């Protein structure tokens, strides 16, 4: 996959691993080709920067020749100030062109990183939900931040340094050969030894760099997990244990970084010793040749200047080779993320659902069917099914309650209705149309969800309420504030609707966060409102108020609610009892008490009881 195609989203690979051709093997040549593909769309800047760099280098190469003439002219008593002025002008112009070229490269590097980050962010926000079950959020975030930063240095420096450094080194070598071929052979022997050392270290640098990036990603993932559950960490006095676990990640990153530094520390002195050794050889041998009248002092000075001038381009070439290998380690992680499968934007008709769906008998409540499940089967793991044949309908202006033990599949029904996952068999329908005939966006426009983990993000109260409808008017926002009984909260907070609620809504209570989520859902005016035990964090007064809200909302849309409290169930128009992934029974409260042993057991065991949360170890939230 090329850099451009990766950003735009290429075909998904199995398990998100990059294809063999994408990484281009482990050779430096293949790595350079891969890095070069990342610069698609920035080739003009690269060409201009390369040209400026070469012009500056050419001016630099001319300086030793001018210095040679200065020495020779001075030895013959000639006027040298014009040559000195020319030498100064060459130096100033070289510095100016070098600075302009470096700016263009840095800007190009930032542009490549921007392009990669846009592609990564856009892809990570659209991944299939199964991918989030297999990849840690902190590690994915690290690929957007740390890994792209490594690539910026590669594309903004290493690529051009390889080209310009090689050309400048070649030019210096040609001029040195013109001045003294024998001395050049001595220099070439020492440089070849350094090149052999560098080549032997490149693979190790790449592997160590990739290990370091993986360690940094794991560190970010562990830290994100601990900070996201900080109240739990502190209540259970687990700060030291978490610090030790995250510290192990720090040590792993440190070890990988030290290994990278060790290899780089061997490479740099090898280059420096080769250059310094060649300089000393030139100084001694060249000095003897001048004494024997085999060459002029000006030639020796020029050759020495070219030998020292060779240091920078050779060092930049060797350094660039190491950077390219480090960049490949980061690029493999980035490309792995870019190849993870995303949610399709077009309807995805499954072979199993290609037939015309069987007619679904509507419930007794008036109005057409808003949401229906027909013999739906699903499992997060194919070997462990969660739903084994769920069928029920929710009509417009009808409130349907889902009840059952933990693990019965209630939350999974919500996940399928929200198109987070696709059923393995059976049909989910909105307004009589199978979801396979609708895009996920079209399905999600019909629903709003309020779950127990009420998501409140950093920002103002207004931002959180209008998250799904950022263009909502003040009147529309005020309407849902009143419906969700948030008036007192708005009055209490300094700034009212414009008050900042803190990270994860830290300035709000659990019940207030849930009411914010209710207001956000109501603002969207959904066709189907999905409520996951909406009264679990509310006191009796606010619970009664929310039940009144649910009745009022039920006059506008269909309501499907996961319920544990008897007060919620009793007011439902229809109740569906789930057991081990199947529809066990359905009807009204009184009917189920009379005909459903499971429903009677749930009520008798206080699974459904007035004004209480689930008891005996049942945990609100995801129930299967």
Describe this structure as you would to a colleague.
InterPro entries: AAA+_ATPase, ABC1_TM_dom, ABC1_TM_sf, ABC_transporter-like_ATP-bd, ABC_transporter-like_CS, P-loop_NTPase, Type_1_exporter. It is found in: Cell membrane. GO terms for molecular function: ATP binding. Pfam families: ABC_membrane, ABC_tran. The chain is of the alpha/beta class and about 625 residues long. It contains 22 helices and ten strands. The strands form two sheets. Strands 6-7-8-3-9-10 form a six-stranded mixed beta sheet, sandwiched between helices. β4 and β5 (about 435) form a beta hairpin. The relative contact order is 0.09. Mean pLDDT is about 75; it is low at about 1-25, about 350-365 and about 610-624.
| Spatial extent as radius of gyration | 35 Å
- Strand percent estimate: 5-15%
Low-confidence stretches: 1-25, 350-366, 608-624
The average pLDDT score comes to 74
Strand order of the largest sheet: 6-7-8-3-9-10
Q: Can you give the helix content as a percent range?
A: 55-70%
Overall 3D form: elongated
Briefly note the structural class of the backbone.
alpha/beta
If helices are DSSP runs of H or I spanning 4 or more residues, what is the number of helices? 22
Number of strands: 10
- Cα end-to-end separation: 38 Å
Question: In this structure, how is the largest beta sheet organized?
Answer: 6 strands, mixed
Keywords: ATP-binding, Membrane, Nucleotide-binding, Transmembrane, Transmembrane helix
Subcellular location: Cell membrane
Protein name: ABC transporter ATP-binding protein
Domain ABC transmembrane type-1: 47-326
């Amino acid at each position: 996959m090329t850099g451009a195609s990766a950003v735009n989203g290429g075909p998904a690979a199995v398990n998100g691993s990059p294809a063999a051709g994408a990484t281009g093997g482990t050779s430096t040549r293949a790595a350079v080709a891969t890095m070069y593909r990342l610069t698609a769309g920035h080739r003009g800047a690269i060409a201009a920067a390369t040209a400026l760099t070469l012009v500056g280098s050419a001016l630099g190469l001319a300086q030793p020749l001018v210095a040679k003439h200065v020495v020779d002219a001075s030895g013959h008593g000639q006027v040298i100030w014009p040559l000195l002025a020319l030498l100064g002008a060459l130096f100033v112009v070289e510095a100016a062109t070098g600075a302009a070229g470096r700016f263009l490269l840095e800007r190009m590097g930032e542009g490549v990183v921007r392009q990669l980050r846009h592609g990564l962010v856009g892809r990570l926000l659209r991944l299939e939900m199964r991918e989030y079950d297999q990849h840690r959020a902190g590690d994915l975030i690290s690929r957007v931040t740390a890994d792209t930063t490594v690539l910026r240095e590669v594309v903004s420096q290493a690529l051009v340094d390889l080209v310009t450094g090689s050309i400048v080194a070649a030019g210096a070598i040609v001029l040195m050969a013109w001045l003294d071929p024998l001395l050049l052979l001595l220099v070439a022997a020492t440089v070849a030894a350094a090149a052999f050392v560098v080549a032997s270290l490149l693979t190790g640098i790449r592997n160590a760099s990739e290990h370091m990036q993986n360690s940094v990603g794991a560190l970010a993932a562990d830290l994100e997990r601990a900070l996201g559950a900080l109240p739990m960490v502190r209540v259970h006095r687990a700060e030291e244990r978490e610090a030790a676990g995250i510290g192990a990640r720090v040590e792993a990153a440190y070890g990988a970084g030290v290994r990278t530094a060790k290899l780089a520390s061997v490479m740099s002195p090898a280059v420096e010793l080769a250059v310094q050794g060649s300089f000393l050889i030139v100084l001694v041998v060249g000095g003897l040749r001048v004494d024997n009248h085999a060459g002029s002092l000006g030639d020796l000075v020029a050759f020495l200047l070219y030998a020292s001038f060779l240091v920078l381009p050779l060092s930049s070439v060797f350094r660039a080779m190491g950077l390219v290998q480090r960049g490949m380690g980061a690029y493999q992680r980035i490309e792995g993320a870019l190849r993870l499968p995303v949610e399709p934007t077009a309807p995805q008709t499954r072979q199993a659902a290609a037939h015309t769906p069987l007619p679904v008998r509507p419930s007794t409540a008036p109005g057409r069917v808003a949401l229906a499940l027909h013999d739906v089967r699903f499992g997060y793991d194919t070997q462990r099914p969660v739903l084994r044949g769920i069928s029920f309908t929710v009509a417009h202006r009808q409130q349907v309650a889902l009840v059952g033990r933990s693990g019965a599949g209630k939350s999974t029904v919500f996940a399928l209705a929200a198109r987070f996952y696709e059923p393995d068999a059976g049909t989910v329908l909105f307004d009589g149309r199978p979801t396979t005939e609708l895009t996920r966006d079209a399905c999600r426009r019909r629903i709003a969800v309020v779950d127990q983990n009420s998501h409140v993000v950093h920002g103002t109260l207004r931002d959180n309420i209008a998250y799904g409808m950022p263009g909502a008017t003040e009147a529309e926002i005020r309407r849902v504030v009143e419906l969700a009984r948030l008036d007192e909260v708005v009055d209490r907070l300094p700034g009212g609707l414009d008050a900042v609620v803190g990270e994860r809504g830290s300035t709000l209570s659990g019940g207030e966060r849930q009411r914010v989520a209710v207001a956000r859902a109501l603002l969207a005016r959904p066709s189907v409102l999905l409520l996951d035990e909406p009264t679990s964090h509310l006191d009796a007064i606010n619970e009664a108020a929310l039940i009144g809200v649910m009745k009022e909302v039920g006059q506008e849309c269909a309501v499907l609610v996961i319920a544990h409290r008897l007060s919620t169930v009793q007011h439902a128009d229809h109740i569906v009892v789930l057991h081990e992934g199947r529809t066990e029974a359905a009807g009204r409260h009184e009917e189920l008490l009379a005909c459903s042993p499971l429903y009677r057991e749930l009520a008798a065991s206080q699974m459904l009881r007035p004004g209480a949360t689930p008891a005996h170890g049942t945990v609100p939230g995801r129930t299967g």
